[in-house]
Amino acid sequence: MRSRVARPERRQAILDAHHLRSAEDVLAAMGQMKGAVMKLAQIASFVSDDVPEQYRTALKQLQTAAPPMSFGLARKVIEDDLSAPLERLFAEIEPTPLAAASIGQVHAARLADGEEVVVKVQYPGVDAAIRADMANLPWLYAILGMLNPGLDPKPLAAELQARIIEELDYHREAANQATFARLYAGHPRIHVPRVVPERSGAHVLTSERARGHDFDWLVAQPQPFRNAVAEVLFRFVFESIFRHHVFNGDPHPGNYLFHDDGRVTFLDFGCVKYFDAAMVADWKRYVRAHLAGDRETFLAQAARLGFVRAGAPVPAELYDYMLYFYEPWHANGPYTFTPEYNAQSLGMVFDRNHPRWGTLLRRLNMPADFAIVNRLQWGLTSILAQLRATANWRAIIDEYLVDANCR
Predict the structure, then answer these.
(1) List of E strands, 85-225
(2) Which residues are designated catalytic?
(3) What is the pLDDT of residues 313-353, one digit of tens each?
(4) Nearest to residue 385, comparing CAs of 333, 336, 330?
(5) What percentage of residues in the chain have a pLDDT greater than 70?
(6) Where are the beta strands (DSSP E) in 99-170?
(7) Which of 11, 201, 252, 373 could crosslink 81 through cysteines, CB 3.0-4.6 Å?
(8) pTM, rounded to two decimals
């Protein structure tokens, strides 16, 4: 109301101040809530420029710096989980966390042999909070099923519940991280920290300490360097999927450390999807058919993958719809990801009232295997857009679609 009656030159300043205060309130509320709500805040902090800058700037803190729990509480979690006094487990541990996120916080520590490590400690009570959030998913997807006749909500809800609840199990996360460390051992540009299993449990995860720069540092680097690092991020995702049949499903800027020589350290392996080899083979045929302009094979593969309910016809316009998402690969030459491209692609995924694609979206199903993969759309693609990354993405993806044995 003040902006409405203010002089024209004062209106924007009043609105900016209002948004800044509101953003601070949102940050405080979502940071304290932790769990699934805080994950939503992390996504909102980088996914689209349509979120006002004040909110993106405030929520960006939640990528690594949520309100922490007290060290006394963290100590109790560690000692209860590892069944030993803290002084016997670590030669030294920093009371102030290095980072705090949606499910746990991370403390720097040192083992008895002098090795520097980080200790990830789960918040007490976050397990029950997230399970309560997940209990509402079937109800939510039942509503979505009514609004989208082509959607089979039950397997989708079950898949999302399974993946998100798995993030609460640090035994599983340690196994995931160890798998990725083995897959990329010796890689010249990809580093995954080693897990310390004897100092890890259901609610505590200890890994070797990795040091590096954050995403803001990368954004400030020259464009050729950003392009080279963007290629590493892109290759990590698609080599993992198409070569190793596994996907780390939480690609956001707080989960990377960047190095002066162009290497990237990848962190946080709580949400990991393992794919069946036959499904990946069908997925690769689906992509190859689209890139080759083979509409018939593409639509047949869409049916095999479950993008429509069993027995339903695949809408022919699905091929044209997917042209936009595969545009960087169809270019077959240098292509630059932009915020504008990312904003439009997000609208095409989520807007059931889209003037061209709304009817199609209501006829499509979301296969359970692709539920977590959709995080690519607001994860990797958003990051590449912020970097304005340029490369021949088609040449890179062809390596994985045709010959998976590449680095």
Answers:
(1) 92-93, 99-100, 104-110, 116-122, 190-191, 204-208
(2) 250
(3) 999 999 999 999 999 999 989 999 999 998 888 778 777 77
(4) 336
(5) 80
(6) 99-100, 104-110, 116-122
(7) 201
(8) 0.81
